[in-house]
Amino acid sequence: MAPKANRFILSYHFMGEMLILFLILYPLFYYNLEAIPFYAYLGILLLALICFLFLTKLTDTMALFMLMAPVIFIINVWLKFGLFISMMIAIVFVWRFIVLYREVYLEHEMNLFQITLVLALIEVILFKDNLFIIILLVQLFLLTFGFFSTNYRQVEKQMHSNMKAFIVKVILVFSGLLLVFWSVGSIMLRFFWDSILMPLWQLATTIFISIFIGIMYLLEKIPLPEPQDQNMEADETFENGNMTNHNLEGTSTAEYNETYAYIIIASLALIALIWIFIKYRKSSFKKKEKETTSNLTTSTDTIDSVPKASLGTRLKARFFNQPKHPVRKLIYRFEHDTAKLKEERRSDETIQEWFTRIGAQIDYHVYEQVRYGEMDVTQADKKELEKALKGYIQKRKEDLNE
Amino acid sequence: MNKIKDAQAQLNQIIFGKVDVINLLFIALIAEGHVLLESVPGTGKTKLAKSFAKLIEGDFNRMQFTPDVLASDVTGIRYFNPQTETFELKIGPVQTNVFLADEINRTTPKTQASLLEVMAERQLTIDGETVSVDAPFIVIATQNPIDSNYGTFPLPEAQLDRFLFKIDLGYPNQAEEKLMLQTYRENDPVTTLESILNREDIRALQTEIKAVTMNDATTDYLLDLVQATRNHPEIELGISPRGTLSLMQAAQARALLDSRNYVTPDDIKALAPYVFEHRIILTMEGAMKKTPQQAIQEVLETVAVPVEN
After folding, report:
1. Could you say which of B215, B227, B304 has the minimum Cβ distance to residue A348?
2. B301 touches chain A (CB under 8 A)
3. Is the pTM value of this prediction over 0.80?
């Protein structure tokens, strides 16, 4: 059975991932359905989550979770999502829940948010729909609220009031953002789209289409259409808005080409963004790791003013500076787990002092070799450490239950 | 490394309940540092130093410091030899491998200062002539607590900074003292002590510690501790760069004795009190409120250890 404390984390991680799935499926909804079924999707997501959580209380057998797939599929079909989309949603829901449920430590908040941000930005340009901003805000709220709620117990008691104030601020800012968006933001956004983004976008697509048609012409695959018509039809496509049926069947060659152009540009933009993101992460990783250490080892202007790493530093470290080495990751997670058991490491404690204090008879030298010796260790050593750490947590939980 | 373990075991049979102190002595030897032993009279400071020296196959000189000891008595003198009718150099007892400066705070500051050069640079300058002192070279000084004794001259900061560790011996507990009585009832075990480590062994270890690494995280931790002593509101004089270096070398030696080729924050944290205590000076207000040990403890509790979170 999954530990109770993890159910909440599991829930908001699952919700976060499935919001991303919605963004991925959006083009399919857009081209196959009359309207975008956001609320229907949210409903089925919540329903599936409740069922999954209920199942976790009953059993650990994965087969039972898999039995949920046909149920979700049937509901999706009933909601007229189409066979393919219904099947996709059912499979991904079950697959991702099982994967997340099996993971003992879930800390993917930042990754989920980054993916949502990138997808929403791409799709907001491609589909010109306010819904993406709403999804982005919902995701931000979900992850922030989830993160702060789960970490509430891990920070010192004196910081609890700060945390409460912060959570209230998050809720207020979220509500404020929604209100501002509904009242002013959407008008501003439309102005931005119509007067700046769209002309630029049309220029880019015209250039790209011209190149595309040129290539096609050279290959003698399709007849060359009139360029003026293309622009007019492109305008019409945008004028018609996002709730119309965009089946490719019956469209003119120009529309067909334009659709291809959109898809290719979007794909290229996506690849470019991913490439830039990976490059940025790689180059900044070492720098960030160094920063973590120096941030965690506080500079002490006065002794009383900085008794421990500040909340901001901890959150920064939590979000941006998670260790990459599997052995370091084990201790990182162990620190979080012991925090839930109120046996967390004090910031001034070495790992030896900490293990001695909590009575954990675990050979930590493997960790020291990796962390301070910057050496690699064997897989067997890693497994042994993992087993010992998990064994300790399990034992402590059993002791507490008794 | 086995020889070090044997030597430590031997010393533990003579000085009871001082495993940590004995370990520190060997760390200082390997880190090429010097040790200041401090405690009330009769707690085994001199015996510990003598026994330690005996374990090392090398030269050992002891000097009892009194107010009338001159600087030239320590370092040496150029004198006129009537037989050869030339000025000759007579080097003092400090040119040895283990030099025991017994009750160093009983001599005058001028004589104390005569040790500065040899302790820091392993060389003596007598009447313009420089003589080097062979490795290994370690000064083990003993002193009585200054507050409890009249006729003492507190060591100046520059002198204290040259000692790697200041170790307070303290009293043994009742069980240890009982064991001591049983052991010393028939004879003094120091008389049967034989040397275990030769000069080559020590030189090899002193070279070996240079290969002990200290990664960025541990280095930053060490530097944060040093900075914390400099920024502590109740510490007037924080740790000097020499102190920083000393702590690093001591940590390397500790790691080597623990059969590791890398330093951990544990090494730093375990040794910091011994390296820092005699190097810091508290403000007047700070001195009224706490001891240097307490101030260092505060520093250690303030600085975050690099683990993961």
Report:
1. B304
2. yes
3. no
